[in-house]
Fold each of these.
Amino acid sequence: MGTGRDEVWANLAALLTQLARHLDQAERLLAHLPHLPHLPHLHTAEVDRAEERGPATYQRVLAIARQALGYLTELTDGTRRVYAPRGGIALRRSTGDCQVLILGQPSGDDAAEFIADLRQFDQRLQVSAELCGLLLGLALRWSAAGFAPPVVLASLGEHLPQFLTLGQALLQDEG
Amino acid sequence: MSVRDALKRLSDSVIDLSNLEVTTYTGKLDQAIDASTGQIKWDEFHPASGKLTLVAATLVRPNLNTVNFRASDVLGADNRVLLELHNAAVDSARNGRMALLRMFTSMLPLHTGG
């Protein structure tokens, strides 16, 4: 197993830890602001209810980002999927390698269910990666600005539609 | 370490991403599970371990050239399912790597614009 791969995954894990800390800091900041601005300009297909244009939207976006971080962290921790209704199918993916274990004689239906579950997980992973990329861009801005509230609010407000759209995709995948 | 430092470390190390290996094994429960813990003994799976049978292996090189191995004595007509599962795992492993790249590409407009 190559050390290069191990290093990539360790560095990704470190980055995700830093992102989680920035998210914590942004959450604390928002919690202490007396008034969060409304977002009357926010009109997207995904945000069509009035209450979703209110201040709670900021918290919702941070919650979406946290969920995405969780999915991506699963990648660095070593993804495991186990499916054993009759026979047994298990998969472990870590540091660029992937192992599959098949016990007994799984039926075509068992395999199809396992593959569908795996694809759904991978779709969530792709959306989560995109969300984490957005968050990373914001975190760099927040950090450079010393978490100045106007910068945090403006940058979040600017990208709320993208977060909400991707968050919706994440929820749909969770079924 | 700042988020910027963490990002730089990750960016620097991504170029080291090497081969992607996917291996599929089959066998019996007692060969794969640690009786004392009930956990799967993932780290003991090797083609030469003699406990489990290697069904298929795929190596994807960084340039996307791919080397495939199929155990012909295991993969008979009845074992189409094993190969389907192996192929799904190869797709999944590729997706895992794609996720990492996607994070970079979605970050780029914000990073350069900010």
Amino acid sequence: MNYSNIEILFVEDSIDDAALTMRGLKKGGFSNTIFHVKDGAEALDFLYCKGAYTLRNCEDHPKLILLDLKMPKVSGIEVLEKIKSNMELKTIPVVILTSSKEDPDIKRCYELGANSYIVKPVESDNFFQIIKDLNFYWMISNQSPK
Amino acid sequence: MRGIVTDINREEFRLLKERRRENDASYENSDWIFLLFLVFIVVILALVVILIKNQNTKNKIAEELQKSTLLIQKNIKEISAVNSELEAFSYSISHDLRAPLRAINGYAKILHEDYASYLDTDGISALNSIHSNSKKMGELIDALLAFSKLGRKQVTTSQLNMDALVKLVKEETANKLSKIEFTLHELLPAKGDQVLIKQVWVNLISNAIKYSNQKLKSMIEIGSYSKDNLVIYYVKDNGAGFDMQYYDKLFGVFQRLHSQEEFEGTGIGLAIVQKIIQRHNGAVWAESKLNEGTCFYFSLPAL
């Protein structure tokens, strides 16, 4: 598979949340290339070009990372920590997209350098709206370093 | 010669008498000394007994103190165990219970958007029910989480300008105020946590608006007065009111005195108000008459 020009790296272990988010992104009318990885370990493999991603061009970074927090094996917090402590990766905006409204999670993520923290709403209209707004803001309004 | 012997005898007798007298006196003296000695011994013994007793009491007190300390430490351990269990519980609710609900709600929405043409009106109505019920459950979970978070939140008190706070809350709910006659008396200041007390005003004012909404004209009055070392605030409306026989359910979590069809709500608002006020060492109470209106009161420490 060709991994070049992936704009959004989407890290999510729940198949349902992934399906709903992908639908929200597509329904929002955006045509950004999104790549979905199913847990934190795979996200790190992707970013560090290891495991299944050894052939990926490692200088080709995604423009945005959407990161779930509660995942098996390697949690979102650990992934975030690894991204933000790496000179190459730390400038990629990371948006936490999670179910947790817990203050310690929010605080910890910002301490580690998260760029945004979004709690996924239960109600689908709100959920799709948030996904649409998020894409619009990070892919169009916001300027990230090249 | 006889005379001399008699003199000597007399003298001896006198001397003997005198010696006996002296002896007697010295006996008396040694009696006193013995008595004093006895008293001294008794006093010393008493002191020793008191000291030992004192030491025993001290030991006992120290023992008791140690016992209490251990008990307190055990209690603290138990409480923090319960606390962390509660935290883990609400963490799990926050993470794990919301996710499946989001899926149920989201897929119902997808069915509605993409497959509505395959369904008849009953099918559509069933889908709508799935959608609205999962949404409702999401709201209940959020309400429960907000309530449990309150118990763990630290209260930071400062001097509160209640006038400004209430005006702010009133403005924030302004879009709903079209047909409401507001009477806002000047409010006394008090001590409290700005964020939490604002929540109290939001809940009480939005309740007053909600429950008086069906009247031709909603009338809401907000005021305060001082009593002893407390300031008492009140929010009075001319709304639906409630039957005072159900008063003990008023502040319960998820307890409602009206049906969902009459007035929407989760039943957490007043439980939150009570919890916040209790955490400020204040009290909250209400007076109501069915169909005539309700007046909510809460007290806070005065400045």
